[in-house]
Write a structure and sequence with these properties.
BRICHOS_dom; Gastrokine; seven-stranded mixed β-sheet; globular; alpha+beta
Length: 113
């Protein structure tokens, strides 16, 4: 499921798929994406790169295309592969940088950037 909040510039994506379930937040106002993998009990954070991550308005269009056409043909599909590295727990300075939506998603979990 996907929720788009144009006012706060936040997109929430929830994937319900058993052990592969995840929650993702695109926080355009702070410029970060965070994915919480439920099976790993960890959060992965990356900076939004405008040439790779679709703009907020385009995410809604892509979701509409996927829902109605069941197939998206777009050069802006986002596929991310994470490599395990050093983790840390967020502190006040990190949460200020990443914003409240990402803090709510990832608080108390190891963070990987």
């Amino acid at each position: 499921t996907m929720t788009i909040d144009n006012g706060d510039q936040v997109v929430e994506v929830h994937v319900h798929n058993g052990l592969s379930s995840s929650d993702t937040i695109f926080d355009y106002s702070h410029g970060y994406v965070a994915t919480r993998l439920l099976s790993r009990k960890a959060c992965f954070i990356l900076k939004i790169e405008k040439d790779v991550i679709p703009e907020l308005q385009e995410i809604g269009r892509l979701a509409f295309e996927k829902k109605t056409l069941k197939r998206i043909y777009s050069p802006k599909n986002v596929w991310v592969q994470y490599q395990a590295g050093n983790s840390w727990f967020g502190n006040f300075r990190n949460w200020f940088r990443y914003g409240k939506p990402i803090e709510r998603l990832c608080s108390g979990l190891p963070l990987y950037q």
